[in-house]
Design brief:
With about 350 residues, the chain is of the alpha/beta class. Helix content is about 45%, strand content about 15%. The strands form three sheets. Strands 2-8-7-6-5-3-4 form a seven-stranded mixed β-sheet, with helices on both faces. A three-stranded antiparallel β-sheet has the order 9-12-11, with helices on one face. Helix 3 crosses helix 10 and helix 13 crosses helix 14. Bound molecules: pyridoxal-5'-phosphate.
């Protein structure tokens, strides 16, 4: 019989809505949002835009749709966008901007802290020349998932955005876990958004909602984004039922993110002590812990951990654990005990 899963650290997307969210969903006042008639969705969009210091917001189905709509609304067929070689848009969104928008993605090197060097940004921007695509948009990510949930500071964000802006580019921020960044850096979220034109954040990850993201920017952009969302089939009707959870999330789930970060740090602190695990615990700032394991052992470690009741994600030589509301300090201790047991088996078989 498969082991019962006690701790699921695959992603914060497995987090569940809180009882308060479920109640708000049940009670939500709704209307047809395609007509702009859903009062709850309107309230969520206004609240999100205000929190991010932008003019307007748009509720979308997912982080992927948020990025896709943002790009399609700011770049057109034959244009080029600058992305990081380790960013989610480039690696994990099925190439949507290229497939659906005929937009070229130009990847530049992502630094270990999730930023770009401004020389790399400058070097990627093409001169106006009919041989070349037209570079129009720079895409940033915060927190940066593949570099281990790194929180990019306001000054680094401004430096990168200014480099793009100086050459006439617009700047989009994939802020799937934006509130984790502001919690980790102990800075207002507006400090992270003020130097970008457009920004999306996910409700369905560390904020525990069942579905959805909010894309924010100026009113003209949101008008255009709404058209693209409709074209992608993302115009939803009585979606206030879902948006209601988002309002509760923004009211109740933001201030507690530091708890998830403390659990991630505790996890990292324990993992570094285990033979065979490669991890610089000092870089763990938010709710994502990425670590190296001996080449070829990742799958076996994940499978053995699952037998112990701990589920994780990862590849051949690198694994990932993500904390969220619902993962307790006791769960971290259980995970570390399980990991010690699993690694002693893996180390023995390698000896
Ligand atoms: C940085 C980042 N951006 C975008 C997304 C996409 O979000 P979704 O899974 O809601 O499409 C993710 C998902 O994990 C992510 O980590």
């Amino acid at each position: 019989m498969p082991a019962k899963i006690r701790v699921d650290l695959r992603s914060d997307t497995v987090s569940k809505p809180t009882p308060e969210m479920r109640k708000a969903m049940y009670d939500a006042e709704v209307g047809d949002d395609v007509y702009g008639d859903d009062p709850t969705t309107n309230r969520l969009q206004e609240k999100a835009a205000e929190m991010l210091g932008k003019e307007a917001g748009l509720f979308v189905t997912s982080g992927t749709q948020s990025n896709l709509v943002a790009v399609l609304a700011q770049a057109t067929r034959g244009d080029e966008i600058i992305v990081g070689d380790k960013c989610h848009i480039f690696n994990s969104e099925a190439g949507g901007t290229s497939v659906l928008g005929s937009i070229v993605m130009y990847p530049i090197k992502t630094q270990p802290d999730g930023t770009f060097d401004t020389e790399d940004i400058n070097g990627a921007i093409k001169p106006r020349d009919y041989h070349k695509p037209t570079t129009v948009l720079l895409c940033l990510e915060n927190t940066h998932n593949l570099t281990g949930g790194r929180a990019v500071t306001p000054s680094a964000t401004k430096k990168m955005a200014d480099a793009g802006r100086k050459k006439g580019l617009r700047v989009h921020l994939d802020g799937a876990r934006l509130f984790n960044a502001s919690a980790a850096l102990e800075c207002p979220v507006t400090e992270l958004t003020k130097s970008v034109d457009t920004v999306g954040f996910c409700l369905s990850k560390s904020l525990c909602c069942p579905i959805g993201s909010v894309l924010c920017g100026d009113k003209d952009f949101i008008g255009e984004a709404k058209r693209w969302r409709k074209m992608l089939g993302g115009g939803m009707r009585q979606v206030g039922i879902v948006a209601a959870a988002g309002i509760v999330a923004l009211d109740t789930m933001v201030d507690r993110l530091a708890d998830d970060h403390a659990n991630a740090k505790k996890l990292a602190g324990g993992l570094v002590e285990i033979k065979g695990i490669k991890l610089d615990a000092s870089i763990v700032q938010t709710n994502i812990v990425r670590f190296g394991v001996p080449k070829g052992s990742g799958g076996k470690i994940a499978a053995l951990l699952k037998e112990e009741g701990v589920q994780i994600n990862g590849g051949d030589s690198d694994l990932r654990m993500v904390t969220y509301h619902g993962v307790s300090s006791a769960d971290i201790e259980f995970t570390l005990r399980s990991m010690r047991k699993v690694m002693s088996i893996v180390n023995k078989s390698a000896a």
